[in-house]
Design goal:
Elements: H1 2-32, E1 41-45, E2 49-52, E3 56-64, E4 69-78, E5 85-88, E6 93-97, E7 106-114, E8 121-123, E9 132-137, E10 152-158, H2 165-178, E11 183-189, H3 194-203, E12 211-214, E13 219-222, H4 227-239, E14 246-255, E15 260-269, E16 275-291, E17 297-313, E18 318-326, E19 340-348, E20 352-357, E21 362-367, E22 370-377, E23 386-391, E24 396-399, E25 402-405, E26 413-415, E27 418-425, E28 430-438, E29 443-448, E30 455-457, E31 461-473, E32 478-489
Helix pairs in contact: 2-4
């Protein structure tokens, strides 16, 4: 009996041992058999960054994998080089020293992979075809040396058909030159630029032209009556507004071959509280390609945004934001670097209600106030010439040369021959003006090389025509203006 009991006891212990071994084997097998079929993911990376020659910068990256990332590589090179240097960034951070002699931007990207080779996965690309920039700043002052003068931002809602707008624009320019209250201004031309129109109608709910918005609508003036005194008073009111200490430093590099402008803004919050807002870069032309009602070129005419980005800064924090504006893709491949003026502005993240027609409390809009602004010219040099067709002008009619404003018909028409007159500004020595008149049945051209560069249209014409005037200076720079008319000329 005892023998049987001992056998049963041994059998039971053996069974338990076998059970434990099988269980452990199953656990080990289940752990080792997880199939790694998912590629790694890069969740964040430093992105574009600025540096001075002689500095050490830190690139940080965060990545995950369903099993494990086994390889993380940082590729970098000087802009224009063909060979990428590389180093491991498996610890998710890497310091790079920028040599003292560095005078070109650097480029970099990161790739990660796992043991099953489901990658490599890259950011912003896996092969370097797209890369981030390390922008080498030239003679950039330390943040403590920045000018803390608060510049206001003025946006003028204007249009080519607006007969009162040129007087308002002239006054804005005069007050700007006096510099009693520092501000930057932008001509938002409603009928020439879609993004300007969107800004005026969608964001600022414009009621009439001209309307001048100061600091995003903190104060505004609608109409041209007694404008100068109202404008100076509104500037003074906006200047007295309490604002957080936000400093902006704007730098850029222009690539003439690619027609690209690389904009970089360093933003520092010197306040004791956190700050959130929206950073915008306005790209303007000092002498606009578009002419106003008086055939004069607009000043600081808005063409496009160079950057729009939400910003969050803790107290004392400094961040860098960078973006490349491609003039060709934006439809402005003919821009001249000497004519570009770039303005950076940061707006509050919270809004207050304002009215685009204040006297009648009509056309309400959510005003996001501008807390800081800075601006600079892209390159010094001679401005390109601009040209505006002074006669004929939009919404007028001409009877044998006599001009009258149309009260009913929403177009320009001409009866009898008409001297075509232009206004030319900027440029070096003007060489010529070329006229082209293109209609449904015929087209003809004329070239004028003597001042005042006018030309008389006296050739038989009937129907709708487009008049184009193009000016050329001695440096080969040119500009155009055009107008559509209906003509009956015998």
């Amino acid at each position: 009996m005892k023998l049987i009991q001992r056998i049963n006891k041994r059998t039971g212990l053996l069974f338990i041992g076998i059970f434990i071994i099988v269980l452990l084997a199953l656990i080990l097998f289940s752990q080792g058999s997880e199939k790694d079929s998912e590629p790694p993911k890069i969740s964040s990376i430093t992105g574009n960054i600025t540096a001075k020659a002689g500095e050490t910068i830190t690139i940080q990256v965060n990545f995950t994998d369903n099993v494990e990332v086994t390889n993380a590589t940082l590729y970098y090179r000087t802009e224009g080089e063909t060979i990428w240097r590389k180093t491991s960034i498996i610890n998710k951070t890497k310091d790079l020293y920028i040599p003292v002699e560095a005078n070109k931007n650097w480029e970099y990207f990161v790739t990660v992979d796992d043991a099953a080779n489901n990658g490599p996965v890259g950011k912003p690309s896996a092969d370097g075809s797209i890369s981030y920039s390390i922008i080498i700043l030239e003679n950039t002052p330390d943040i403590d040396e920045w000018d803390e003068t608060r510049y206001l931002l003025v946006e003028e809602g204007t249009a080519g058909w607006c007969s009162n707008c040129p007087d308002v624009a002239s006054t804005i320019h005069k007050v700007h030159e006096q510099n009693e209250i520092p501000f930057y201004y932008i001509s938002m031309i409603e009928d020439k630029n879609q993004k300007a129109q969107n800004r005026l109608k969608d964001d600022l709910n414009i009621y009439g032209f001209p309307t001048v918005y100061i600091d995003g609508g903190y104060t505004l003036i609608m109409g041209a009556g007694d404008f100068e005194s109202k404008f100076k008073q509104s500037l003074s009111v906006a200047q007295s507004r309490s604002t957080p200490r936000i400093l902006l430093n704007l730098t850029f590099k222009w690539d003439e071959t690619k027609k690209q402008l690389e904009n970089t803004v360093i933003v520092e919050n010197k306040d004791d509280a956190s700050y959130s807002g929206t950073l915008k870069i306005y790209i303007t032309e000092i002498n606009s390609r578009w002419a106003d009602y008086n055939a004069e070129a607009y000043s600081y005419g808005f063409i496009d945004y160079g950057l729009q980005k939400d910003v969050v800064l803790q107290a004392g924090e400094k961040k860098t934001f960078s973006e490349t504006w491609d003039a060709k893709n934006a439809g402005f491949s003919d821009v001249v670097k000497e004519n570009l003026f770039v303005i950076a502005a940061i707006f509050t993240s919270t809004s207050e209600k304002r009215y685009a027609y204040p006297d009648a409390t009509e056309n309400p809009f959510d005003a996001y106030f501008c807390d800081a602004a800075t601006g600079t010219r892209v390159s010094e040099g001679i401005l390109p010439p601009t040209i505006g067709i002074k006669t004929p002008r939009e919404y007028n009619h001409y009877l044998f040369g006599k001009e009258k404003h149309n009260r009913i018909l929403p177009f320009t028409y001409i009866i009898g021959k008409l001297p075509i007159q232009v206004t030319i500004t900027g440029g070096s020595d003007i060489e010529k003006v070329e006229y082209t008149v293109k209609g449904p049945f015929r087209s003809f051209n004329a070239t004028v090389t003597q001042e005042p560069y006018d030309w008389t249209w006296d050739t038989f014409s009937f129907g709708k025509y487009t008049i184009t005037a193009q000016v050329y200076d001695s440096n080969g720079k040119n500009n155009t203006d055009s107008i559509e008319v209906y003509a009956f000329i015998l």
